Amino acid sequence: MRRLNLGSMAMVALAALALCIGLSVTATESPELKTNLTMVDELKSPGLEAEISGIFPHPDRDDLYFALANQKPPYRQGQKPMLAEQYRGNLLTVDRDGKIVDAVKLADDDFGGMAMAEGHLFVALTDAAEILKVAPATGDVVARFPLSSPAGGLAYDADRGALLAQLYVGHPHLAVVDPKDGTVLETLWSDESAMGLAKVDGDWLCTWASGWEPGSFSELRVLDQATGKVRARVNLDVVHSSLAPTRTAEGEGFMSLVTVDSVSGETAIRKYSYVGTAL
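Below the sequence we write its predicted structure tokens.
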């Protein structure tokens, strides 16, 4: 998931720590992982990296996707807003050309990730530190699940029958959450600079970023499903944040929100095919 809007001092500290962690892990990159993923498509985005959070493919139409628009985008110095204020705090339906075709108000809040399970969308709120259970056809909130801290990445693991929520305020960890009532079933290890989460072709995938300033870098990671710890990683060409599982012509894959211009904050949606590693 993308950065949380936690205040400038906290973000500076987080970016510095992320850079230190990033420098320590790049030596253990798994270059063979590059053969498991191939970029197959790129869609336009309606907003900057400060404006857009979780993304998810539309359940019925391949030419549409969902995106969450933050209520208070944390713009960096010199960035010019792209998304109209009327869309802030909304669940957006977007076409492949970046045109907003529908918008539903969800909350006066910023967002983390988004997942779909059992016919509902699940949306992480950052200020409120909770997960919303949403009817996708109407945008109605049917349940609210409190969390111990704001969540970034959010994913659904059908094998576990549970949501995975990336919590990284205070004690960084993955919370395994029952999608029926919000009960936290267990907690696993996590890196506090992790971004998006998705389960694709049997693998738990996670994006990681060193920061958002020019020169920042990003990784795709495969997580151990028993512990949450990193099993494999590969460097990515630009910062990748939100993740969502999707289908491609080649089989299973994922879509990711990527920052294609770190100065302006311009983003795009990239689609990748992916072959699981069975790690």
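The radius of gyration is 17 Å.
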